[in-house]
Amino acid sequence: MKLLYVCTHNRCRSILSEAVTRSRAGSLIDVRSAGSQPEGEVHPLSLKYLQQTGYDIDGLVSESWDVYAGWAPDVVITVCDRAAGEACPLYLGSAIKLHWGLEDPSALGGTAEQIEAAFLSTITCIEQRVDQLITVAQLPPTQWQSALAILVLES
What we know:
The chain has one domain: Response regulator (Rossmann fold, 3-Layer(aba) Sandwich), CATH 3.40.50.2300. The radius of gyration is 15 Å and the shape is globular. 41% of the residues lie in helices and 12% in strands. Helix 1 packs across helix 4 (112-137), helix 2 packs across helix 4 (112-137) and helix 4 (112-137) runs antiparallel to helix 5 (144-154). It has 155 residues and is α/β, with parallel strands linked by helices.
């Protein structure tokens, strides 16, 4: 399965999702992340909390979805509400599209402990959803759409 996570700025939620998926799914899911308006750098707290929870951060970059014009993902998951409302490029037209709507832990204020808790909660949520994606990725590709539709309803 080829999977693209999309978030407007590609610096927090999509990056967290990419790193978690890469680690948990291994070669079963070929995963990338991108943004419609990439910030150009990964949020430092995304990197901090990924490392803290044992995820590899090598190769994580904030980049445009235009980079993947020739890649043709099977599944595109938007992880922020703003990206979900944007028109996807035509080359993503045949991909199965899902929306996770994760809250942005980098946009929350509060104490260092509250910010850490928000990041760790988001990572835990992503881990649970990725574990479900792994189950779907093991099915024949013809069953992915219906299996993913059920997961969306349960999430």
